[in-house]
Amino acid sequence: MKTIFRTYQFELMPNQEQKTLLDKYFGCIRFVYNHFLNERKEQYQADEKSDNYYAQAATLTELKRKDKTIWLKEVNSQSLQFALRCLDTAYVNFFRGNAKFPRFKSRKKKNTFTVPQFAKLEADKFYAPKFKEGIKVNVHREVKGEIGKCTLSKTPTGKYFVSILCEEQYQPKEKTGAVCGIDLGLKDFAITSDGIKFKNNKYTKQYERKLAKAQKHLSRKRKGSNSFEKQRRKTALIHEKITNSRMDNLHKVSHKLVTDYDIIALEDLNVKGMVKNHKLAKHISDASWGTFVRLLEYKADWNDKQIVKINRWYPSSKTCCECGWVNQDLNLSIREWTCKNGHILDRDLNAAKNILKEGLKIYRQELAITKVERKSDFGDKAYSMKPEAHPSPLVWVGSSLGQTRLMDLGYTYKCNSHALAPKMIMMMNGVEESGT
Ligand SMILES: [Zn+2]
Known about the structure:
Structural class: alpha+beta
Bound molecules: zinc ion
Radius of gyration: 27 Å
Strand order of the largest sheet: 2-6-7-1-5-4-3
Largest sheet: 7 strands, antiparallel
Helix content: 40-55%
Number of helices: 10
Shape: globular
């Protein structure tokens, strides 16, 4: 068992009175955030210094006593302080060079506020400070573990949601002994080195016409009018649908991969750079690779599985996975090619196989470093299921069926209930330690 943090999102169905209070919350949070962002900016311009979180929290307490801003008392003070914390984090991230300068919050974007403590979920009600009656909530899946901080939000379509962060005791998935490389593509969303394809659903394309039509209608309406508002909602609903079905698919694919494989190798894609420079930008954004990798990473972390990222300049498509010959003339439109030595290669599958090879090479190198450092901690016999604890080098074995298994020398490997020593399998397959 290990401790993990899982987020659940449910739709809230507040009554009119609760809606008013929620909107008040959003307003107060936005006010606090913007007010103190402005304060910091002004202070900085005056003498290149600005208040930190603690100084600002003290100012906030003063603000709540002033007549002009006494309405800040109507919402939970912890939520206001949390907004200050977020501002502080945004500043720290900016000064570390990890983020852009914090921007003012706008009412038109997504509205959110956080309840750091004392939220509860009981039957079909969500309870938070100042919401004593509880807000009706649509709990569509069981919540496990202990509830921590909760974030409430309102979408541009006027829906209310709550994200609940839970601390859970989790049983990681069983090891399968399987490894794979993944090529993220456009024709298929992803293809694994053993030839499993995940379809690219191209959600945006599917809804593109509908969206274009809705946007055209919107542009004809007078801004601020009732019909404009109605049409804006319609357009936002299409966007929402696209996002939801896309996320659903990404969750399914990442879940399957983490269940089936112990080590997953993929290219470290600079999606931002690609979107900027590429004519395929729209499709790339549509496939949402960045989000996919993020999902894959946290699911792997929960289940003690490994994600290995390889350099994105590694020529995974151009190299023949059988003999290593590099095809310099390969362009994007070629789906299948034959190498100098006569190997017929499917573009994406070949790339996935190369990514796996390269990934395992990197994985072994990292392991070798760990091995030296850990030599004193682990005796020769100290084998555990955790790959990073293995004191001996890892070996992978490929068969003609395209299945690849990871194993450790001197560590028994189970294959469909046959227990085999890895050395024996290597001999059977005629494979030496490959990749290096
Ligand atoms: Zn070849």
